User: What shape does this take?
Amino acid sequence: MQNDPFMRTYSPRQEAMARAATQQAAAATRPASTAATSDLLAPYMVQSEPYYRAVADEIELYEAAYSVRMPMMLKGPTGCGKTRFVEYMAWRLQKPLITVACNEDMTASDLVGRFLLDSNGTRWQDGPLAVAARHGAICYLDEVVEARQDTTVVIHPLTDARRVLPLEKKGELIQAHPDFQIVISYNPGYQSLMKDLKQSTKQRFGALDFNYPDHDTEAEIVAHESGVSLDVAKNLVHIGERARNLKGHGLDEGLSTRMLIYAGSLIAKGVAPLAACRVALVRPITDDADMRDALDSAVTTYF
Ligand SMILES: Nc1ncnc2c1ncn2[C@@H]1O[C@H](COP(=O)(O)OP(=O)(O)OP(=O)(O)O)[C@@H](O)[C@H]1O
Ligand SMILES: [Mg+2]
Assistant: This one.
């Protein structure tokens, strides 16, 4: 079966695994040139353990996905822990993490690299994706749908069995380093027809769903991150849950864990809970007077 050519055709994942194993074996015998490489990626190492409270089996699933270098998509609403999770995983796996915040002005050159003019003439500078692919980092493309589709397709050859990045302007084909992995984040609520990932992009990724954690877990996170007591954190989470029930009934998006932490941080600094909740929870999320009243009264129920 091993030499069956059809097996290869029908199992791109297996091919990627075999390729990663070969590359890993090659890396093990690689000469001392890796010293310069690790210097280059040193600023991207996550130095101390980020606080991350597991919500389900996402850590184990991500570890398994990394072991086969499966490109991963983290899906979920804003402020629910996607960025924190990828930082934690990079720390746990002891791999450098290069994060790119995507936006609609971003071009393929911003990711891949460009020629720069200096006193000695022109010089090529790798973009963040090329640095990650060449030297072996986890490359996290945050809010990837914000990028134009022609930009997104540069990741295609990196996210299938080929694992290559063509630098067309430079005339170079980078074979991705065995440690390289690509991770993207994606908020399924924000997509319009014009702004969504192509199926051919989506289908290159494994996906983990993120959401606001259950009550007790979220309270634990809010207390830890903001410094308020667990009781105060629980009240904040109750308010958050009330607001989340209004999603689709006047609110576009529920209150995020991030917002609850903001409110907690103000309370921990001595701001009265009512004022803290107005500033950090209610005012940012809606301009509608009735909705503000509804949220304010939810706040007064708990504080
Ligand atoms: N499971 C968790 N463990 C620890 N902290 C968490 C967790 N979930 C959320 N947080 C806290 O919530 C904050 C917001 O999370 P994060 O920045 O990771 O959100 P995000 O999903 O990346 O949002 P966005 O889509 O807006 O970028 C974090 O800074 C962290 O303090
Ligand atoms: Mg984020």
Q: What stands out?
A: The chain has two domains: 5-209, 215-302. Confidence is low (pLDDT under 50) at residues 1-13, 26-35. DSSP finds 14 helices and nine strands in the chain. The beta strands are 72-75, 97-101, 113-118, 121-126, 138-142, 164-167, 172-175, 181-186, 206-209.
